[in-house]
Amino acid sequence: MRDGRRRLVDEELPRLRMPVGPLENLQSLFSDPVSDVWLEIGFGAGEHLIHQAEANPHIGFIGAEPFINGVARVLAEAEKKSLHNIRIHDDDARPLLERLPAASIGRVFLLFSDPWPKTRHHKRRFVNAANLDALARILKPGGEFRFASDDAGFVRWALAATLAHDGFDWTAKGPADWRERPPDAIATRYETKALTEGRNCVYLRFQRNGSTPGPTPKKA
Ligand SMILES: C[S@@+](CC[C@H](N)C(=O)[O-])C[C@H]1O[C@@H](n2cnc3c(N)ncnc32)[C@H](O)[C@@H]1O
Fold first, then answer.
1. Ligand 1 centroid vs 41 CA: distance in angstroms?
2. Which residues are catalytic?
3. Which end of the chain is more exposed for a tag (fewer CB within 10 A), N or C?
4. For residue 135, which of 41, 58, 21, 30 has the smallest C-alpha distance?
5. Is residue 17 lining ligand 1, measured as CB closer than 6 Å?
6. Which of 190, 191, 196 to mutate to test the pocket of ligand 1 (most atoms within 8 A of CB)?
7. Domains and CATH numbers, the chain
C-alpha cells in the first residue's frame, strides 16, 4: 500500500470506523445532518459507494468491506472529494447487520457479491435465509435492497431466495428493470470487468414491505 494510503488507514480509519458498542441513532454518526442512512455491503474498490455518497450529500453511508486496499481507496477518495457522509466497517458485514437497529436503513446495496459457483460452496453466498432475515430487520418499511450480479446461477438463487422471503417484494415491471443498471448507479469494478468480457449483468431491486420491522417468518 502506498504511504499516503497507509497514513489514511492509520489516521482516518479510526475516526471513520463504525463505533463499537450499541448503535442507536445512526444519523448521529455523521458530522452533518443526514435524512437517511444507506448501506453498501462488500464495496470492493468503493467506486459505487463514493459515487452515491457524492451524489447524495444528505444521506449517510455505511460501507462494509474487509479488503483493506478497498477501504484505503475509499478513504483517499473521500478525502479528495471532501465527503463527510461515509462511515466504514472494515470487516465482515454480518456482525454489523446484527448490531444495526431495526428499521434504521433506507437502502442496502449488494453488488457483484462473490457468486461461489461450485455447488458445495453455495452455502457461502451472502444471499441466504439468515442474511435476508437480517436485511429485512434493518431495512425501513419501503426501503430498498439492491442486488446485482453477472453470474446467472447466483442471480436465479438470489431471486428465488428473496422472493421466498415474506419481507421483500420484487419491484420489476418489465425486462428493462433487471437488464439495465439503475439510472442513479455507476458500474462497479467487477461489473466493468464482466461487461468487458461479454457477460450480461442483472440488476434486482426489492422493496421491504409491511410495516413491522424484524425477522419475518418463512413461507411454508
Ligand atoms: C466480487 S467482489 C465485488 C466488489 C464490488 N462490489 C464490485 O462490484 O466491484 C466482492 C466483495 O465482497 C467482499 N465481501 C465478501 N464477503 C463479505 C462480507 N461477509 N462482508 C463484507 N464484504 C464482503 C469482498 O471482500 C469483495 O471485496
1. 7
2. 114
3. C
4. 41
5. no
6. 190
7. 3-17+33-208 (3.40.50.150)
